[in-house]
Amino acid sequence: MIGYVTLGTNDREKSAKFYDALCGELGVGRMMENEQFIAWGKPGGGAGIGLTRPFDGNAASVGNGVMVALEAKDEAQVQRLYDIALANGGSDEGAPGDRGGGFYAGYFRDPDGNKLNAFLMKGE
Which pTM value belongs to this model? Predict the structure, then answer.
């Protein structure tokens, strides 16, 4: 059920070196990267990990930058999960849509404010 976990960072390069080594030992490398984030894993593989500067521009801390991602089977399921979240006390953090690089996702928070998303990685 868990697709990947995202962790916040205040020093992208230092943390990237740490995760390059850790994930290398686990047999996976970087699979997506931009100035904001880096993701390690393997398309079609087990749960991956992402490292990001918090999107809101605040400092990363335990919790800020942390997000649980739920892997969906298709775009319709991403939409259903997003709709279910909003219908059950959740709040919008970004409607479902294409985020680039074959990544399709909808973002939401639970009633306590924890950030989650439902996502799909489309094949080439």
Answer: 0.73
